[in-house]
Task: inverse folding
């Protein structure tokens, strides 16, 4: 997991608003920006992942958190405890979403669902050479990807000699760099405090993804270990974990203009999308995603209405749908309002012009292959979104494949099915006990199947379609689905029993769900291989694209959101330094919008012209001043002189 800073550095009037994500080791490079934004501590103190305050930051699996006491207390977001803590511990008679929860003492704290974890990063080592060893002999990129995967599995296996740690290999910058991240894994995590949802989710989906947003989106957990300090699953004999360091919560809060920086473990980002991908997202992909999510919300509401137990079981899935529905719908609306597609087309045309003039023949061929691969995959992606959508089939398919993989030596198994993954698989099956009901799952599956059936046959999976008679009548499909859901393995306790069986024992069972999975298993494995090959090919092309984009850091700017390019930022300061207006009147307007101190040939030597302007002072500190400047006080900072 990468520990990243996400910061919005706001200067007066927002003329120099800066935002982005950085790794800790990059902080010294941003010293001037941090000083200008109001950070008055030692920058080196936030550049070491394994020193205070950085080593107080942890992950709870999908969410960032921080130790806030010497006795293992952890602060995180409310939405991060909804599933494995609130939903797991709630019943219709004791609904923690409605009442909130406060533990009066250690004994009152509630356990997490099986699999609840805290991860503390203890080392991060660059291992690029080890990961890429032998790849120079690969005949193609798919073979290279297989070598990388095998090398990574070997590295992880050698790393995880202690049951208290988890290791993983992470790729950075489109495969240019690889790092081995080692983490202490705490296996006993308990709920200490959560507000009622009326506070934790105040404003609901109306306010979600909006700014400003006022909500009590926080909760408290506690990490526990065995008395000897080792990591152990939930046990009453366990004791609170004593972290090496912890953060202190300020009772004063923040004031307007205060410096704010967020430290945590974000998801991955992709800044290398082609125009074809952006165009697809904005003209088809996003709108189809919104349809998919909206229908998912409706299906859950329709099938849980009036049943408190079912409503609780599907609360997490519904919240997830609502979250992404609001996010993607907002992205679509914003892209239309700011005429993003037109701007991206201009930038892509400029990039292609650069490629035409500067790229090698091999680089041009790589880019053409990438664009061809993207076009080929896009239509299929729409259909694949509606493939499956049965939690029952997914649970038992995973059990079936796991049993098959267990027949192989550990190092030859697919990633996600090795010995190190067995507890995680078992815990995911256990989650069915509080997240799954067969009748609701079947209703969702049938609805999704109706949409999947409407796609051209060449976009659907043939064996899956044949097994469910998707080219026949709706009644025939319904009868087959009813038969599948008559399986004894709709009971989560039976799923756990199935998990313990060998592949040979599973394949002799007479059960309609097992029969269905056997009928589509070979096809599913073939599609996995196909997708792996395509991912490998795309990775190769993205690596080449990354090399090209490094040489094109010229950034188009539209200052008023009317869909036209007003100028270019050639220096990375976020301001126009090359005007591109189409007529002299527009050029004059654009020039007026540029702060006087950021205009070409501004005389910084005449201090009287700018020293009393706060924005100019900040700009000078951030972009103009260098370490050799001796004409100004050594304590010169972002205060106006």
Result:
């Amino acid at each position: 997991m990468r520990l990243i800073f996400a910061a919005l550095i706001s200067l007066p009037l927002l003329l120099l608003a800066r935002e982005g994500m950085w790794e800790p080791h990059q902080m010294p490079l941003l010293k001037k920006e941090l000083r200008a934004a109001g950070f008055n501590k030692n920058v080196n103190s936030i550049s070491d992942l394994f020193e205070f305050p950085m080593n107080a930051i942890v992950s709870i699996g999908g969410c960032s958190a921080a130790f806030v006491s010497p006795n293992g207390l952890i602060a995180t977001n409310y939405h991060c405890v909804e599933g494995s803590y609130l939903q797991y511990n709630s019943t219709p008679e004791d609904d923690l979403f409605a009442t909130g929860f406060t533990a009066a003492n250690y004994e009152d704290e509630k356990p997490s669902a099986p699999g609840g974890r805290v991860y503390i990063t203890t080392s991060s080592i660059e291992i690029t050479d080890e990961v890429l060893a032998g790849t120079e002999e690969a005949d193609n990129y798919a073979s290279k990807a297989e070598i990388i995967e095998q090398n990574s599995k070997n590295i992880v296996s050698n790393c995880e000699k202690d049951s208290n740690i988890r290791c993983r290999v992470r790729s950075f910058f489109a495969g240019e760099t690889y790092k081995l991240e080692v983490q202490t894994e705490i296996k006993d995590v308990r709920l200490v405090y959560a507000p009622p949802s009326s506070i934790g989710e105040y404003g609901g989906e109306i306010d979600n993804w909006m700014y400003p947003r006022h909500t009590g989106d926080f909760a408290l957990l506690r990490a526990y270990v065995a008395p000897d300090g080792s990591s152990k699953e939930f046990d009453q004999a366990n004791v609170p974990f004593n972290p090496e360091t912890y953060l202190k919560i300020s009772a004063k809060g923040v004031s307007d203009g205060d410096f704010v920086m967020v430290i945590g473990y974000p998801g991955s980002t992709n800044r290398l999308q082609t125009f074809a991908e952006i165009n697809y997202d904005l003209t088809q992909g996003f709108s189809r995603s919104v349809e998919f999510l909206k229908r998912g919300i409706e299906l859950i509401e329709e099938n849980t209405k009036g049943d408190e137990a079912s409503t609780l079981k599907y609360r997490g899935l519904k919240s997830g749908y609502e979250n992404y529905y609001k996010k993607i719908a907002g992205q679509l609306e914003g892209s239309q309002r700011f005429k993003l597609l037109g701007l991206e087309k201009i930038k892509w045309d400029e990039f292609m012009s650069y490629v035409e003039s500067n790229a090698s023949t091999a680089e041009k061929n790589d880019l053409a292959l990438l664009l061809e691969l993207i076009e080929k995959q896009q239509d299929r992606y729409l259909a694949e979104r509606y493939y499956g959508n049965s939690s029952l089939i997914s649970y038992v398919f995973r059990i079936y494949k796991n049993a098959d993989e267990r027949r192989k030596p550990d190092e030859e198994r697919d990633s996600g099915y090795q010995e190190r993954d067995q507890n995680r698989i078992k815990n995911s099956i256990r989650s069915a006990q509080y997240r799954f009901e067969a009748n609701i799952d079947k209703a969702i599956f049938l609805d999704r199947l109706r949409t999947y059936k409407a796609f051209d046959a060449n976009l659907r999976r043939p064996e899956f379609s044949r097994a469910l008679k998707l080219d026949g009548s709706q009644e025939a499909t319904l009868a087959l689905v009813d038969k599948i859901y008559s399986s004894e393995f709709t009971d989560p306790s039976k799923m756990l029993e199935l998990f313990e069986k060998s592949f040979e024992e599973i394949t002799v069972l007479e059960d309609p769900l097992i029969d269905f999975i056997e009928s589509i298993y070979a096809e599913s494995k073939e599609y996995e291989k196909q997708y792996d090959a395509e991912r490998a090919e795309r990775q190769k092309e993205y690596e080449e694209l990354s090399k090209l984009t490094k040489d094109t850091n010229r950034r188009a700017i539209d200052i008023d959101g009317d869909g036209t390019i007003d100028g270019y930022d050639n220096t990375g300061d976020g301001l126009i330094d090359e005007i591109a207006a189409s007529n002299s009147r527009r050029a004059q307007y654009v020039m007026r919008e540029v702060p006087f101190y950021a205009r070409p040939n501004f005389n910084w030597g005449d201090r009287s012209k700018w020293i009393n302007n706060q924005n100019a002072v900040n700009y000078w500190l951030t972009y103009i001043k260098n370490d050799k400047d001796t004409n100004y006080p050594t304590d010169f900072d972002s205060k106006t002189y």
Notes: Residues 1-18, 634-641 have pLDDT under 50 and may be disordered. The longest helix spans residues 512-549. Residues 68 and 248 are 6 Å apart (CA to CA). The longest strand covers residues 177-186.
